[in-house]
Amino acid sequence: MPGKILIIEDEKRLRANLKLLLASEGYTVSAAADGEEGLVYLEQEPWDIVITDIMMGEVSGFHVIEHITKHAPDTLVIVITGCASTESMLQARRKGAYDYIAKPFDVEMILLSIERTLEKLRLQRELKRHTQELEQRVAERTRELEAINEQLHHTLTEIKAAQEPSLHTEQRAVLGERSCQAAPTR
Q: How far apart, in Å, are the Cα atoms of 71 and each of 3, 40, 74, 99?
């Protein structure tokens, strides 16, 4: 499943090489030189994956992750950083990053991360589609049952209305028999 990937990386050479590599793998790739430019790309169109550095000028990768979490929750984030630490990894994960890779990294590592990320996206979309189908079927069945319930209520009302005159007749007949039986004979 080829995906749309946005690279947000302030190291020009790494950004260009990563873009070239991912494009050669069949992905649709765009690249931004910093977090501010990355946010512009994010506002213009949807992305499957954003690969972002953390430390970049005024708009950090953490800010980018927060923006994606809030405005594009179907986009997954892979963090790449030369300042890897347990603290920054935990912070990135808490903010919503899906994966975290320390620089320098092996090409196979980033490709594997992208494959896993796209698989997660595929499964999320499939789950969402199945959930929508199930909700639709439940709604349809609920409407059917409501219609059946309404028809049943209408039928019961008709039966009661039809039985009422004969019930009164039977009651009068029973009362009449009782009053005849209770009357003293002379």
A: 19, 13, 9, 19
Nearest-5° Cα angle at 43, 129 to 61: 95
Name all contacts of 56-60 with Cβ < 8 Å and 24+ positions apart. Answer: 56/8, 56/9, 56/10, 57/10, 58/34, 59/34, 59/35, 60/35
Q: Strand pairing of 99-102 and 49-52?
A: unpaired
Kindly report the three-state secondary structure assignment for every residue of 61-79: HHHHHHHHHHHCCCCEEEE
What is d(CA 18, CA 31) in angstroms, rounded to the nearest whole number? 9
**More confidently predicted of 183 and 81:** 81
Chain position carrying tokens 């213009």 = 44
What average pLDDT does the segment 68-92 reach? 93
**If we measure between CA atoms, which residue out of 59, 63, 57, 2 comes closest to residue 28?**
2
pLDDT digits over 129-141, tens only?
989 999 999 989 9
Chosen CATH of 4-134 out of 1.10.260.40, 3.40.50.10330, 3.40.50.880, 3.40.50.2300: 3.40.50.2300
State how far the Cα of 186 lies from the Cα of 178, in Å rounded to an integer: 17
Residue boundaries of the structural domains of the chain = 4-134
Q: What's the residue count for the chain?
A: 186
Rounded distance, CA 117 to CA 79, Å?
12
